[in-house]
Hints:
mainly alpha
Amino acid sequence: MSDNEHADGLWSRLRLIEGQPLDQRAAAYSALHDDLARRLESAPRDTATPRAGSDL
């Protein structure tokens, strides 16, 4: 999947969330956060570049 397809999917998901009642939006944003955090943690890491906040 291309970066544009990922971005389009994210925008679609955000529009869907924004159309929900407030209490449902909160839960949906929490689920979105969890999903994005999982994807970020599972992404390959570049070991040559120190991460922000690291002691390297």
